[in-house]
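Continued from yesterday's entry.
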Amino acid sequence: MANDLLNDIRLKQPGFSKGQKLIASFITGHYDKAAFMTASKLGNTVGVSESTVVRFAAELGFEGYPELQKELQELIRNKLTSVQRIEVSDDLITAGDVLEKVLNSDIEKIRKTLSEVSRKDFNGAVDAISGASTVYILGVRSASALADFLGFYFRLILLDSRLVDTSGVSEIYEQIMRVSKDDVVIGISFPRYSSRTVKALQYASDRGAAVVAVTDSLTSPLTRYARYTLLARSDMASFVDSLVAPLSLINALIAAVGLKRREEVYKTFAELEHIWDEYEVYEKAEDTEV
């Protein structure tokens, strides 16, 4: 664990070389900044060579510096304040390459999500959702946008899907108080994790409901109560976390549940198309002459 890493560095520091002691002191004092520095930049900052930084990582038992960096990032992602995130983002992007940096970072997050998400948990979640009596969807703060998107489509393809209003703490429990073993509760949260979401999932799990956690890491507090854990990368490329990969995962979840209930979904949308057309819900596209 990342907290153990800092303790390990402190314990080993007396036996480090002079250059390694400089690295150790910087990391333990400024791990929020070190987590997003390349080996070269970290070396330049403390006045040692890049190879010394790489050897320092090996001394701690890592295969290379990227593994050490990943451990540090896991430590800070749920601890950084908004102001600290802004400070760190200066090391991640510059004004001239924001568009390219952020979009390429999002592409990489989707690739990593595809390789890391558990197919077993994904398929299990799809089966549980498809057979549930009621599906509750919960997302607080920035995760509420993901919950809204999921809730919009699940309302169309499931018989009973409920988007939980998270504007107040007591209201959450009033809405899920009757949750049972026949139901599924989907909780969505990324660093900084919402305590309201975690506690609601604990309540649902205690009541026997199948809990689906959509989050970023197996160390996320949501996983304690989850029967199915769906991991999606949301690492920060700036002072805000990216929700591109989580949205893509949720999109896949909607598509899979829709295919599982193909016949009902077809009938629902056929009826909806008739309603939308009759009541002019959508603006008709005008034909253009060539």
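--- second protein ---
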Amino acid sequence: MTRIALLFLTLPLLSQDLSKEIAKIALEAEGKVALACLLPGVKLKCGLNEKSQPPMQSVFKLPLAMAVLHAVEQGQLQVHQPIRFLKTDRFFPKTHSPLQDKYPEADVDVPLSELMKLSVSASDNVAADVLLRVLGGPEKVQAFMDSLGVQGFQIKDGERGLHRDNQLQYRNWWTPESAVKVLIRISDKTPFNAENTKLLHQWMLETETGLKRLKGELPAGTAVYHKTGTSGTVNGVASATNDVGFVQLKDGRRVAIAVFVSDSRAPVEKREAVIAKVAKAIYDAVGH
């Protein structure tokens, strides 16, 4: 029997073992786990509740940045144009926002590119809502995703709404199955020009949040292009601890991974560890 034939015989077993390992890891979350992975040309059985609709939280800031970049390419906006940060854009009580921390009195112009970077890389809530205001609201993000043929994605509210009512976060959801398809799209078959694709990838690569999630157990120096999402904890339950992105393999290919941990009673360290262990299991399965 040839070496190639032996390889194909072992692939189903590999996928089966991976699926079992991921299901076992998910039990540690003490909540709901929904995930998917995708590596073009390779059959991977890694999905778990991949058609479910977990709340995105700040993961929505990735499709938001994509929609803004699309508006740039349509000539509706300019990537470095100044955008007025209005007093009415501020959040009270304060939320996570390096933008508002830097300009507590607002009334300043901020480049559109900086607002996108803050939204994706720093998960800045105020910057995200400024982008939504400039773009025309969540419905514009939905329309853009629909235009790409994306199914399994819904956005109804920005950060101000999510802060006002904890239940609204469940109206902003993304199926893991859909998320990994979009991730591979922006990785391998980008809908943007080279310059804007480079910007988006750089912002994802420089993500400052959730460093113990997808990146947590991967080999040092592994490039991970990702966006996190995190809810607060209410009555001991964390509605969302998420991370979606694509991971650079040693041979240059990129595997997309989307993990959503919902309605969990586990401490944040355990929730993040579940995401890290899932990413490591997938990486080990395909990254050799």
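The longest helix spans residues 3-26. The longest strand covers residues 237-248. Will compare against the first tomorrow.
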